[in-house]
Design goal:
A middle domain of Talin 1, 340 residues, mainly alpha, two-stranded antiparallel sheet
Length: 340
């Protein structure tokens, strides 16, 4: 893959970006309808359905990079995707002019997500700095991350069904409830699920191509794989999140928008577990360098800023957390570039 001409890699990246952008709108509307028809709610639909599916290109990109032995691209792609997706949330806040997005879509599930993500990223940091305990070449931290993710999904359902802390509703708050009015029964639920699977497959299929293009760009330009992963492939594979979050805000599926980002971020951490399995030269985490550590710190800070915004709940404008997210992300990218 490193032998791809630079122009071919650029064409693949642009083509993937266009495909992921075009498919984002119809996919978001379909998931919003499924959330209403099935009664699972926008937040859970955003976390599990949109967040996971829109992360599939990034997952395959990290797997391709790890199987080729490029650990920095594999980790940089995953962690850079988390950082840029969180920055997308601030852009969505700017796009939603009625009130502050975190205020309008406040919920326990959305507040829980960045906290659990910080825990998962802390596990990654400990895995890199601690002893490399592996089984069949896979670090024990990789199944721990999967367990954290599954337990998070369980907690999200539990805090929705039996909340012990409640959001104070204001005139700007939009509860996570099915839309009122007659339900759309013109299309069979089974047909909607088939469409969901087909769209998910199309989105996922771009991941292999983006991974190959990223390896080629790193080889042809001499850029650090960590920079290529965080800024090039990480951004391209995160484009579905940008499109879906803006489209969700447009149709006022606000909980779906935030659930998409925080859910996608949680799923992105699992890229490291999958990449660890694909990497056959030992533990993926043992290859963690300063760029990866920087990206982990950046992702933790950005997501805790989201949590702070959900707690503070500014009623109008982008809020302190939105401004801080954009500034911190910009500082993080500059710092990454300064490391070479």
């Amino acid at each position: 893959m490193g032998a791809w001409p630079l122009w071919a890699s650029a064409a693949v990246l642009i083509g993937a970006a266009v495909l992921l952008t075009v498919g984002g709108g119809p996919f978001t509307r379909l998931v919003d309808r499924l959330a209403d028809r099935t009664g699972i709610g926008e937040t859970i639909a955003g976390i599990v359905m949109v967040g996971a599916v829109t992360s599939l290109p990034g997952l395959l990109t990290s797997i391709v990079a790890a199987s080729a032995g490029d650990t920095e691209l594999a980790m940089g792609n995953a962690l850079g995707g988390i950082a840029v997706q969180t920055a997308f949330l601030a852009l969505a806040d700017l796009y939603y002019r009625r009130s502050n997005l975190e205020h309008a879509a406040a919920s326990l599930q959305n507040l829980l997500a960045p906290v659990v993500l910080a825990v998962m990223l802390g596990v990654v940091l400990m895995a890199g700095a601690g002893p490399q305990v592996t089984v069949a070449g896979v670090h024990i931290a990789s199944p721990v991350l999967v367990g954290c993710y599954l337990y998070w999904l369980h907690l999200s359902r539990e805090v929705r069904d039996r909340p012990l802390w409640r959001v104070v509703h204001t005139k700007s708050t939009r509860p996570d409830l099915p839309e009122e009015g007659p339900s759309d029964t013109s299309e069979r639920l089974s047909v909607m699920w088939v469409k969901f699977v087909l769209l998910a497959a199309v989105v996922a299929g771009t991941g292999y191509a983006v991974g190959g293009a990223g390896l080629s760009v790193a080889a042809q330009t001499g850029l650090s794989s960590g920079v290529v992963g965080a800024v090039v492939t990480g951004v391209v594979t995160s484009l579905p999140e940008l499109v879906t979050v803006l489209f969700a805000v447009r149709i006022r599926a606000l909980h779906l928008a935030i659930g998409d980002i925080v859910g996608g971020n949680g799923f992105d951490v699992l890229f490291l577990s999958a990449a660890d399995v694909a990497y056959r030269d030992g533990s993926l985490y043992a290859a963690m360098g300063p760029r990866v550590v920087l990206l982990i710190g950046l992702a933790i800070v950005l997501n805790l800023l989201v949590a702070a915004g959900l707690i503070r709940r500014d009623e109008s404008g982008i809020g302190f957390e939105g401004v801080a997210i954009l500034l911190v992300y910009a500082v993080g990218v500059v710092s990454l570039a300064a490391l070479g």
